[in-house]
Amino acid sequence: MLQPKTPDERILVDTPVPTSSLLITQQPNVTKDQLKVSYGQLHYKIDYDFSANKLDVTVVEGKNLPAMDRNGMSDPYVKVALLPEGKQRFETKIKRKSLNPHFDETFAFNIPFAELPSKTIHFTVFDFDRLSRDDQIGQLTVPLEQIDFGTTVDVWKHLEPPEENADSVRLVHPNNEVLPDISNIVPLRRQGM
């Protein structure tokens, strides 16, 4: 820990300064809004088929997803669940090396119309990782009580921050590239040393 030598230094050492203030001071043209991390956007459609008692949810595409891989890209896919039970779950195909993936996949949830207001659709966007646990890019919840089922809902929404484990660390590079979570990597034993 840094020890102050003079009374003036004590003020500097003991005064907390938000990191964003330091960044703005060092880079005067950067605003606080520009320092916010973007998790990208998700385009989805929701429609209810009254004759079949089914809810159709289409994951259309993602836009401006953060790079999660070293190559500056992501391998995104989307999990769609109907909450609170979460028993009905679906998953899109993985779109390799893309920050703007096109999915165009529709999933049908069998549910009576009267139950819709008590349900929520939960979208979770992941980055596929072959050698470790898939990284969560962002998420989105859509309470169905707010939906007008008289027409097809066709919406773009900003993704919200991912749910984090208590022991997980999320690092963000200055160019908005999210660095991978290394907390789940198992070190290999050194041999021949």
TrEMBL record:
The lineage of its organism: Eukaryota, Metazoa, Ecdysozoa, Nematoda, Chromadorea. It comes from the Eukaryota. This is C2 domain-containing protein. The keyword Ligase does not apply. InterPro entries: C2_dom, C2_domain_sf, Synaptotagmin. Residues 38-157 form the C2 domain. The keyword Aminoacyl-tRNA synthetase does not apply. Transmembrane segments: none annotated. SUPFAM superfamilies: C2 domain (Calcium/lipid-binding domain, CaLB). Coiled coil: none annotated. Pfam families: C2. Keywords: Repeat.
